[in-house]
What does this fold into?
Amino acid sequence: MTACAFDLAHYRELLEAARTGSYRFSFFDDEPEAGDVLLRHDVDLSLDAALQLAELEAEAGAPATYFLMTRSVFYNLASEEGEHALARLRELGHRVGHHAVYPHLDLDDRFDPVVAWHNPDPKFMSEPLDGVVNVMSPPWFAAGRYRSDSNQHWRSGCPHEELAGGELEWLQLLTHPEIWAYAGTTMRETMVAMLDAERERDLERLAVDRIDLS
Ligand SMILES: [Zn+2]
Ligand SMILES: [Zn+2]
It folds into this structure.
């Protein structure tokens, strides 16, 4: 196993580790059971990064739940790109939840009834929601059965060894696609790599928008 880099190669190794540990990939529609790994992705910044990870997971036979924003300043879910991302995620066998900006719940038929708050505050983070799963409320959230890659920092360590060894009863694994899809050994480097890629895409978007770039 290589060092725990935040790149697609190690993400693939994480999925393989879960398979080695005989875990099954599950969704948030049922309460977690022993042997479940709930792959959760909060898509904060880049639909393109989400699709890269989604394709990799589909190849690896690892379905996940992607939480998409309706109020992002970085992407527009109602745009053609947004609709394409939604459709492709579904096609690949993933679920789509709502990454909501408190206190706004914009749940509609684009989403499964499952919510993850963006930048949650402890005072509302774990509050149960009516008729909708809040992924940070019990039983989907439990101490010791949750890992997150926030800002390229695993608070309790990268779980690949524990997964391979079957040491965790079950796990909710939150990863942010941008962190893994773009190269960088620091969060800043990774974000700059993402912005460089987005700049290229912006040039294409301008051309599609009939802007004269000659
Ligand atoms: Zn690792
Ligand atoms: Zn977020």
Observations:
- The first strand starts at residue 24 and ends at 26.
- The CA atoms of residues 54 and 89 lie 7 Å apart.
- The two ends are 48 Å apart (CA to CA).
- The beta strands are 24-26, 36-42, 65-68, 95-100, 114-117, 133-134, 146-148, 171-175.
